[in-house]
Specification:
mainly alpha, two-stranded antiparallel ribbon, about 120 residues
Length: about 120
Amino acid sequence: MDVDLNGMDLDQLRALRKQVDQAIASFETRRKREAMEAIEKAAREHGFNLADLTAGGGRGRGRGRKAAGGADEAAGRAPRYAHPEDPSQTWSGRGRRPRWVTEQIASGRDLSEFAI
């Protein structure tokens, strides 16, 4: 894909960056979902379900650590919003708003701008 970045104005460049960030976040989400499906399939092939093999399997280990992506990701909720500069920071739209969402809205931006 050949794009003449030098010929674009600032608004066009920002729109392009937003599209790229959204595409990256969507790609990462799909890859994580595919990995989870593969893990669940492997567990089933061995006669287990995923909860049997993790801390949630009732072995007295407690709830375990929160997943790196946050509580929404750990709960299996698909992200609906992504940080404009760091698409690895996502939010499902459920529960307490992350700090980055609150800060962006306080600076005058609209939540719909971060939709994935």
